[in-house]
Specification:
Its EC number is 2.5.1.97. It is an enzyme of class 2 (transferase). By secondary structure, the protein is α/β, with parallel strands linked by helices. The chain contains twelve helices and 15 strands. An eight-stranded parallel β-sheet has the order 5-4-3-10-9-8-7-6. It has a three-stranded antiparallel β-sheet with strand order 12-11-14, with no helix packed on it. Helix 1 packs parallel to helix 10, helix 6 runs parallel beside helix 7 and helix 9 packs parallel to helix 10. The termini are far apart.
């Protein structure tokens, strides 16, 4: 596929010329409650999201239960500062037995349901649930073992590009394509949590589209919806945002997740941005044609006697547009009237004496 070829997933078409495809990422914001997970599904469906995405791993498939320093996050600015990786993923993972009821409920609510697998066993599991596409997370985008496994399913792939150089991405795209991945979307992603607008660099979106000749979107970790709206203006066809019911409830990713009302605003405003982009056009719309009458033209604004000269005092450019065009203003000043003219009369050539 190329950047301009649409990707069909279930009832949705992803690509240029189509409304942005909005993915609600639940991550671990279910806070280990299936009931809450299903509430999130309902909330994002009501908000208008097109897809619901999970993450499929266990603590053991994503890390090792080690106690040495390398298994701790020692960044004081991180949301997860001083967390042991194994403990963090134990808190954040979505039990695999929850996937089917969550997926079923999402599909019942009219959304596509899929996931990011973090190892090959997760791909096998998701294949058993017949997911329609796959997402590759930023920290896995150079795991060629995983990339090959996902690509060989033959299903569309969405891959985040965080924490990867251009060389990394070029190699990963080649691995995917060499293993039967035909439908690929790359997501511009800044893998900091939350990300700042200053580090988001949305101008990368059209460059990435041209560089790899694929559709491009945004995996957005900034607060609010401004970056997503701007991304659509730059050609993003997919938007991914973390979601939660209420940030105040806490959760591993809640601090940079959207609440349902914010997600609804994102869906509405990014669709407006898409529609507003339109095409290069200088043609007046039908409504604009009707508004032409409200443009300015030349009117007599003081009573003028036959033979009297037109002056800046008795001729002005005003609305509506029933008189002579303003381009003729300099031509008619100091010309004389052919007859008496009442104030409020639209000026036309029959009222002007040709010398």
């Amino acid at each position: 596929m190329t950047a301009n070829q649409p990707i069909q997933v279930a009832n949705y078409t992803i690509g240029a010329g189509h409304r942005p495809f909005v993915i609600a990422e639940m991550s671990g914001n279910h806070n280990q409650s299936l009931e809450r997970a299903l509430e999130i599904v309902d909330a994002v469906a009501d908000a208008g999201a097109h897809a619901l995405k999970l993450q499929t791993y266990t603590p053991d498939t994503i890390t090792f239960n080690g106690s040495s320093e390398e298994f701790y996050i020692r960044d004081a600015k991180s949301l997860w500062a001083d967390k042991n990786l194994y403990k963090l993923y134990s808190d954040a993972y979505t039990p695999w037995e929850w996937h089917k009821p969550i997926f079923d409920h999402a599909k019942k609510r009219g959304m596509i349901a899929f996931s990011s697998p973090f190892d090959t066993t997760a791909v096998d599991f998701l294949e058993s649930l017949d997911v329609p596409l796959y997402k590759i997370a930023s920290f896995e985008n150079t795991d060629h073992i995983l990339l090959k496994k996902i690509a060989q399913t033959g299903k569309p792939v969405i891959m985040s590009t965080g924490v990867a150089s251009v060389a990394d991405l070029d190699e990963s795209v080649k691995v995917l394509r060499a293993n039967c991945c035909k439908d690929l979307v790359l997501l511009k992603c800044t893998s900091t949590y939350p990300a700042t607008p200053e580090t988001t660099n949305l101008r990368t979106i059209p460059h990435m589209r041209e560089l790899f000749d694929v559709a491009v979107g945004l995996s957005d970790h900034t607060m609010g919806i401004g970056a997503a709206v701007a991304a659509v203006a730059l050609g993003a066809v997919v938007l991914e945002k973390h979601v939660t019911l209420r940030r105040a409830d806490g959760g591993v990713d809640s601090a940079f997740s959207l609440e349902p009302d914010e997600l609804k605003s994102l869906v509405i405003e990014t669709e407006r941005a898409f529609l507003a982009m339109g095409q290069v056009s200088y043609t007046l719309t039908a409504k604009e044609q009707k508004s032409l009458q409200f443009k300015r033209s030349l009117y007599v604004v003081q009573d003028v006697k036959a033979g009297e000269a037109f002056t800046p005092e008795n001729v002005r450019s005003i609305r509506p547009a029933n008189g002579l065009h303003t381009r003729y203003y300099d031509d008619i000043i100091n010309k004389t009237a052919t007859k008496d003219i009442s104030a409020g009369t639209a000026l036309d050539w029959s009222l002007i004496l040709n010398d």
